[in-house]
User: Which sequence fits this backbone?
């Protein structure tokens, strides 16, 4: 398993051509208490950078973007009734999608943990 | 952009872990470590302290200051009993709202509090139009709001006179030996006080309030969700120069004499709307699902016809779900009307709802 990050504050845990995707602890902290998430459907396909969902906190709405070209293979449906999981465990139970990576070459442009840490200072 | 200004409580906010943001040119705490939900509930259940020093505090001095102020606002300031405060708004010739404000009869002067974002413009407006009235901006005073069902305990522990005030009353009193102006009003829907404090004593007194076991600091985030649930307008979102007081359902702030006499900017437009009814009205809107509907979201009838727009909305922690306010065509401004809200292109069901969403708990 390899962990990648995007400069839009998402993480991807990649195993083979499948990845689990969520938002980083830093992003969850910045957003504040999450009260709603709008997710796309299983089977939907996206290109890198497409909007794939919206997270609403008490403060504001914030988009989630496709980290790579992908197809959504599983949606974390627990979040609909319990969006606060994104705050409680952003990099664990608060995962948002499982995706099938359609262009593995794009992973090269993502950040590793050290580079992401540097990004958020 | 100039650097944001800081209130006399800036250092205290930072010490308390406040997350500082730029708001109307001021560096203000949007929340503290407790978080917006916790701070909101703190205010509904106990007491919360808010720094509102970014708002403009102004004294109007001079013979006939009240009568002259009436030429700019549609509210009766004559008579306004000494020690009483009223909510009002500056109107323009089109009947729009330039700002909303609180004006109090402080005996030998009027004490006025205006919004941070309109502060400079309001002062210029008063200086230009209140002939013979001295318009004094108080630059050396903080304004601290203590709000919530326990606010009276928090404030009266240090200043027993505070407990004698009722809603919309104001007085001068010492708190820990510091001369303050204490007014029983606020922007949360709860009982509470706004206290004008000399800037060099502001942090000291705020700490004294926070020493009370039922009191905690709250930021702008909670202030917004509290006022939204309480159905109170936010200038710049729910009311502005394009909305009239009648559309905004603020008719109650225009007393009988002013309706009869007019004599304020835009009186022709405003009084005509009072008689004929406005074409659109500000209403509460309660989304049925979980998605918050924010400023700018379109409101449609179930057949898809557009009837209006959300002007403020978000999550209401006390309601436990999303709440919103917006203007809809008057024909459809009926509680219980089923509407759809178009959020990011998707239709979400909602109902027109009475304002406020939560009961106001003022000390009458």
Assistant:
């Amino acid at each position: 398993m390899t962990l990648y990050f995007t400069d839009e504050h998402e993480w991807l845990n990649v195993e083979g051509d499948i990845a689990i995707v969520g938002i980083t602890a830093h992003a969850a902290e910045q957003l504040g208490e999450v009260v709603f998430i709008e997710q796309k459907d299983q089977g939907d396909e996206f290109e890198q950078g497409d909007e794939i969902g919206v997270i609403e906190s008490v403060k504001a709405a914030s988009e989630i973007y496709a980290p790579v070209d992908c197809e959504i293979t599983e949606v974390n449906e627990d979040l609909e009734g319990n969006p606060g999981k994104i705050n409680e465990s952003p990099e664990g139970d608060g995962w948002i999608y499982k995706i099938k990576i359609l262009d593995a070459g794009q992973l090269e442009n993502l950040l590793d943990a050290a580079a992401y840490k540097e990004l958020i200072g | 952009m100039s650097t944001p200004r800081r209130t006399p409580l800036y250092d205290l906010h930072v010490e308390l872990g406040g997350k500082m943001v730029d708001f109307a040119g001021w560096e203000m705490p949007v929340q503290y470590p407790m978080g917006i939900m916790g701070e909101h509930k703190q205010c509904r259940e106990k007491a919360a302290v808010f720094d509102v020093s970014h708002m403009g505090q102004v004294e109007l001095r001079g013979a006939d200051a009240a009568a002259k102020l009436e030429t700019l606002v549609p509210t009766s300031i004559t008579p306004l009993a000494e020690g009483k405060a009223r909510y009002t708004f500056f109107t323009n010739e089109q009947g729009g709202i330039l700002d909303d404000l609180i004006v109090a009869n402080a005996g030998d002067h009027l004490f006025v509090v205006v919004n941070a974002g309109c502060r400079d413009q309001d002062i210029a407006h008063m200086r230009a139009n209140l002939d013979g009235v001295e318009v004094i901006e108080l630059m050396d005073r903080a304004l601290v709001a203590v709000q919530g069902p326990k606010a009276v305990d928090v404030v009266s522990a240090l200043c027993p006179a505070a407990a004698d005030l009722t809603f919309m009353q104001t007085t001068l009193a010492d708190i820990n030996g510091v001369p303050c102006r204490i007014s029983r009003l606020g922007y949360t829907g709860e009982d509470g006080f706004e206290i004008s404090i000399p800037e060099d004593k502001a942090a000291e007194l705020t700490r004294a309030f926070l020493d009370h076991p039922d009191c905690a600091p709250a930021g702008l985030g909670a202030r917004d969700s509290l006022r939204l649930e309480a159905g109170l307008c936010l200038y710049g979102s729910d009311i502005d120069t394009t909305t009239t007081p009648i559309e905004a359902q603020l008719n109650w702030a225009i007393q009988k004499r002013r309706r009869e006499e007019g004599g304020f900017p835009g009186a022709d437009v405003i009084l005509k709307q009072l008689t004929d009814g406005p074409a659109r009205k500000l209403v509460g809107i309660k989304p049925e699902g979980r998605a918050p509907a924010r400023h700018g979201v379109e409101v449609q009838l179930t057949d898809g016809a557009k009837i209006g727009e959300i002007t403020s909305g978000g999550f209401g922690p006390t309601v436990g779900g999303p709440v919103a306010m917006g203007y809809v065509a008057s024909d459809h401004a009926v509680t219980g009307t089923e509407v759809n809200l178009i959020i990011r292109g998707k239709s979400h069901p909602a109902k027109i709802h009475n304002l406020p969403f939560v009961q106001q708990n003022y000390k009458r």
